[in-house]
Amino acid sequence: MSLKIRAILVIVIGVVMGLGLSVGGGLLGADKPLGKAELSWEQAQLFAEVLERVKREYVEPIDDAELLESAIRGMVGDLDAHSEYLDASEYRDIRISTTGSYTGVGIEVAEVDNAIRIISPIAGSPAARSGIRSGDELLAVDGQAVEAGRLRDTMNSLRGSAGSKVTLSVLREGDVIDHEMRRQIIRVASVHKELLSHAHGYVRVNQFNEGTARELSRAVDELQDARGGLLDGLVLDLRNNPGGVLDSAVDVSDLFLDAGVIVSADGRSVESRFTRVAHRGDILDGAAMVVLVNSGSASASEIVAGALQDHNRATIIGTATFGKGLVQTVMPLSRGRAIKLTTSRYYTPSGDSIQDVGITPDLLVEDTPGYPDLSLSGLLDREADGQLAEALQQLQPHAVMHSNAK
After folding, report:
1. Which of 310, 340, 344, 385 does the annotation list as catalytic?
2. Is 143 left (phi over 0), alpha (psi -120 to 50) or beta?
3. Is residue 113 part of a domain?
4. pLDDT tens string 385-404
5. Are 210 and 147 within one domain?
6. 351, 233: one domain
7. Which residues make Cβ contacts (< 8 Å) with residue 374, sequence separation at least 6?
8. Has 237 been annotated as catalytic?
9. Is the overall model pTM greater than 0.85, yes or no?
């Protein structure tokens, strides 16, 4: 066994045996804790044996640091589908997604047909001002060709310090066009709004970040200003919303509830056991609500849908949601790294867990082909989008009753 592998074995054994002793409460003389210590030694030795075999016989040379990081990824990732180890770059991306802002050029990119394509430039961003268009194929960043299958690397190359220059080369209708721009702080809107009729509003939440509740409250205020008074009804579209920050989901639910439990959670640590309740104040003043959901609505989206459904505050329309009833906590580590670890199970106000089950809509309406992806791009069609059409139909009786009460 090599000296380096031996050193790793010593460290691993020390850590694992320490854990074994702590589990046993330090009673080394008792049979059960001693058994745990013996098992820890054997497992640590097995780890070192596998490490040495891979180092010596794997078809390609592999770095020690890379091997150990892979072992850590496997240890955390094998717990469940949502726990994972995050290197510094991945942790930075997580922080960006939760804050809703980053420094870059302001484009959404995706891999389509083995090419990196521009989905859309964000309004007012450096990319939009320079003339980047939806559908452009991104060829290079600062002269370095981008590659399909390495989308994360492409996204990292687009980011940088505010004010720094960057050149994007795109292919459009057979022509290669270079766009030079300066990076800036980009704020990503998580809420989109539209007045569907004189009295009904529509808001779509794409994800839940730290500013979503403020954005949503502002959007409703603006819709009511445009209407010239309180809305008679609101459609809250959570379709294909993968979730995000749990506290953001709580705050969004609280916007429409006056009292009661929003969500509760149960875990092993004190911090992982909690109950969140609503505070007095409904920004719609009791006006009717419909929440649109589908199989892409997960986690934080399900918290909102479950809370509004259990309190009879909204009618849920669409298809069953994803069914992610687990809470992940991001725990920082040294050198900018972290682990995202499942720490709790959460429950709707009625006490139900939606893990692997999801929220069952009050009214089942299947997705219409092409939707809600088109509505995500701001292309609402009240007739072609069957779920949206049904939502408006459900609001009609409430609109009449609300106007008669005035």
Report:
1. 310
2. left
3. yes
4. 999 999 999 998 654 434 33
5. no
6. yes
7. 380, 381, 385
8. no
9. no
